[in-house]
Design a protein that fits this description.
alpha+beta, Beta-Lactamase, Alpha-Beta Plaits, 3 domains, eight-stranded mixed beta barrel, five-stranded antiparallel sheet, 27 helices, Phosphodiesterase, membrane
């Protein structure tokens, strides 16, 4: 360990020195390269201006030479003679004296008379058409033409005696020699290029042959006119390039000059500087190695001793003291570490206990309970075990009414009772909140059920606390091993399912029933799929008509939600609506139903069918403070009058929190919508509560209507409800009308509207329109 630490210290110091040197080298490299690139780009821009001057001077010299030739008396006499041999000889003599690379003699109309190149087809086949046109317009022409793969700077001057007797042209070749002359002046390479159908044709260059071949392979000339391009690689050399046009260039393919500055030559002077920097970096690394070796030995020894002591503490060995040498920072660290070692030994047991036990009751917590259950099942001898999951009923009300301090006292007392009610070898654990678990091993099914029932009876005994006396109740779920599962996860999940069934049925104790796990897993799967049902367009609405008995007309329809699952088929509303309420997704479903129902109502109204549409609200919807605003926004969006929307709220929902329900109903009613109490007669509401509700109608639950006969108890209830509603100024609707007997009694009791399968099942929107048409025709 000591050698490893020593090596790390040495490596760290050397690494810091090398990093600093490399950073310096990188900064110098980047700075010099950037400076060279900027300098080279500037040289190219200056070189472009020099090129313009260079080319201009040579062109003027060529023009002056052509003027001298055109004014020569002997030359004019030869041209005037009209003899081709004489004209050709005169042109060759005079052009040879001025050092011309090309010469032509044309008639005043532009016909070929003589030339230095003889009968070369390149000069005869329209090469000078553009030059001649420019000369005819301007009186002379100074142009660049490409003939037979070579560039020429061409001056074309009329020959006058005194009338024009012809045109004489003197040309100077623009090629490799021309480019080398420019390089001798500026140290910049020049290449004369033209576009040859997807590749560059190099007509002359001062570049080496490999660079010329690489340039010829390019598709277009690099570098925008007047602006240096990025780095250009030609063979093994690197250049900056700048493109410039050739003044007066004639021909179908564009001609230009490409100026190149060698990046390699520009960077060469800085290579020695980089070598010196690298040499200094190596020297600094060697010095750092020596210093690091000296310092590392002095630092690593006490640190290694502390590291070895830390390893002993990690392994639980607190017996060996930590040596303290000197008075420096490491000595103080060693002293502090020794005191820490002493404190750790005292706190370790307490920390372990707190990690596995509940701080309030002192019982094992969830993690320790799971560990003990795994240990009990790991023996593999098939011995029977029982797991009891329990929680207190209405414990939230105790906390809300008497305070959390009182609730803590209740939990402590419950923990004591559970410990007293079980055997010494049984485990009692608090899983969290008011949820507890009891693990009993080596018990049969009958004994486990009797012990669980005894636990329940023990908990139901009156609880005497210093300030008050209360009665408790609890719900228990019991699972058995191996009957209900062979692993801890399965047993705990099924115990939780049995506990949920006990709370739902208020049965006190419920033993897990085989098959309930599959129902639970199906519910979990449906909850997950329900959140995607709207996006997948699996939800749809069906509409059941409500018939006005007095007018025999359809006045309202009730929107009923249907879910066609992608793989499970149709899911009943009685199954998925409670799941939506438990998962908190019911708000999104209600808003979907409201928006879809109002959109459909708007389509019906546009088609001439004016119906009210009723939408059911759940208990969770009444807790949504934004619901009234959403309703109004949706009504405005679809342009539906507020009185055409009826919101139905179940009577049992209203009775959960009457005051809050009344406030929410007033907010909804203020927007102009109608309100209805659904399933009336099942929620145990009093007349005092009913008169506070700002509702417009009562809807009698179908359980009173479906089997109603003359003189039956159901008939008495229905008749009394109708009279009660009318006396309070409310409309009364009866649902579940499925036979003529019920319909006749409802008509006799003066019920306002009826709804049921006697008239129609819930229909799709298009089918409802057709049903309404047939119904009105039948009643007409």
């Amino acid at each position: 360990m000591r050698s490893r630490l020593h090596g790390k210290i040495v490596a760290l110091l050397i690494g810091l020195v090398l990093a600093a040197q490399l950073a310096t080298f990188a900064v110098v490299h980047v700075a010099t390269e950037r400076s060279v690139r900027q300098q080279l780009a500037e040289e190219l821009r200056v070189g472009e201006r020099v090129w313009q001057r260079f080319y201009g001077n040579r062109s003027e010299q060529l023009l002056e030479t052509a003027l001298v030739l055109a004014d020569d008396f002997g030359f004019k006499a030869a041209v005037a003679s009209g003899d081709p041999a004489t004209m050709a000889s005169a042109l060759q003599n005079h052009a040879g004296r001025v050092g011309a690379d090309a010469g032509v003699l044309l008639s005043p109309e532009g016909a070929w008379l003589a030339g230095l190149e003889g009968a070369s087809p390149g000069w005869r086949d329209g090469a000078l058409d553009g030059v001649l046109a420019a000369a005819a317009e301007e009186g002379y022409s100074l142009s660049v033409v490409a003939v037979d793969g070579r560039l020429y700077s061409m001056a074309l001057i009329p020959v006058l005696a005194p009338n024009q007797i012809g045109w004489v042209g003197i040309g100077s070749a623009i090629g490799d020699a021309y480019a080398r002359d420019f390089k001798a002046l500026t140290r910049l390479d020049a290449s004369f290029v033209r576009d040859a159908g997807g590749r560059l044709e190099v007509l002359g260059s001062s570049l080496p042959e490999p660079a010329v071949e690489a340039l010829s392979a390019l598709a277009t000339a690099p570098g925008a006119p007047g602006q240096a391009s990025d780095e250009l690689t030609l063979g093994e050399d690197h250049y900056f390039a700048l493109s410039a046009p050739l003044p007066g260039a004639r021909g179908a393919a564009p001609l230009g000059v490409l100026l190149q500055g060698s990046l390699d030559q520009a960077m060469a002077p800085y290579a020695a500087l980089k070598a010196r920097i690298l040499w200094l970096s190596g020297l600094a690394a060697a010095l750092a190695l020596a210093v690091a070796g000296f310092l590392g030995r002095g630092i690593s020894r006490p640190v290694v001793e502390l590291a070895e002591a830390a390893q002993r503490v990690q392994q639980g060995d607190y017996s060996r003291p930590i040596p303290v040498r000197g008075r420096d920072e490491i000595a103080r660290l060693a002293s502090a570490f020794g005191h820490m070692q002493e404190g750790i030994a005292a706190r370790e047991d307490r920390i372990l206990h707190q990690a596995h036990h509940d701080g309030l009751t002192g019982l094992p917590n969830r993690s320790l309970a799971r560990e003990r259950l795994d240990q009990a099942l790991a023996h593999g001898d098939g011995r029977a075990c029982a797991v009891v999951m329990l929680d207190l009923d209405r414990f939230k009300e105790i906390n809300d009414t008497l305070g959390h301090g009182f609730g803590d006292q209740v939990l402590e007392e419950v923990a004591k009772r559970l410990r007293q009610a079980v055997r010494a070898e049984d485990l009692v654990a608090r899983l969290g909140g008011d949820e507890f678990m009891v693990l009993m091993c080596d018990v049969g099914p009958d004994f486990a059920q009797r012990r669980a029932q005894a636990l329940l009876e023990q908990l139901r005994l009156p609880l005497d606390l210093p300030t008050t006396r209360i009665n408790l109740d609890a719900s228990l779920g019991l699972v058995l091993h191996p009957e209900h599962g062979r692993d801890a996860q399965t047993l705990l999940r099924r115990a939780d399912i049995a506990l949920y069934d006990a709370k739902e049925a208020r049965a006190g104790l419920v033993v897990y029933r085989p098959g309930r796990d599959e129902v639970h897993l199906r519910q979990l799967a449906l909850i997950g799929d329900l959140r995607q049902s709207i996006a997948r367009e699996e939800l749809s609405l069906r509409f059941q008509p409500k018939v006005d008995l007095a007018s025999r007309q359809v006045r309202h329809v009730e929107a009923l939600l249907r879910w066609q699952h992608g793989s499970l088929g149709a899911i009943p509303p009685d199954e998925f609506i409670p799941l939506a309420e438990r998962s908190g997704f019911v708000h999104e479903i209600t808003r979907f139903v409201l928006d879809s129902a109002l959109a459909q109502n708007a389509r019906w109204r546009a088609g001439g069918l004016d119906l009210g549409v009723a939408v059911n609200l759940s208990a969770m919807d009444l807790m949504d403070a934004d619901l009234p605003d959403f309703v109004q926004a949706s009504l405005r969006q679809h342009r539906v009058p507020p009185q055409r929307l009826i919101l139905e709220v179940t009577e049992g929902v209203l009775m959960r929190d009457v005051d809050y329900a009344v406030r929410m109903l007033h907010r909804l009613r203020a927007g102009g919508v109608r309100l209805s109490i659904d399933d009336f007669g099942t929620g145990y509401s009093s007349l005092a509560q009913l008169k506070r509700m700002p509702v417009d109608e009562l809807k009698i639950d179908k359980s009173f209507v479906m089997q109603m006969t003359e003189g039956s108890d159901d008939a008495v209830i229905v008749r009394s409800t109708i009279e009660l509603g009318h006396n309070m100024g409310l409309s009364v609707i009866a649902e579940g009308v499925e036979n003529d007997v019920s319909l006749g009694l409802l008509r006799q009791y003066r019920c306002d509207m009826v709804q049921g399968y006697l008239f129609s099942a819930p229909l799709a929107p298009e089918a409802l329109v057709e049903w309404c048409r047939r119904f009105m025709e039948a009643e007409a």
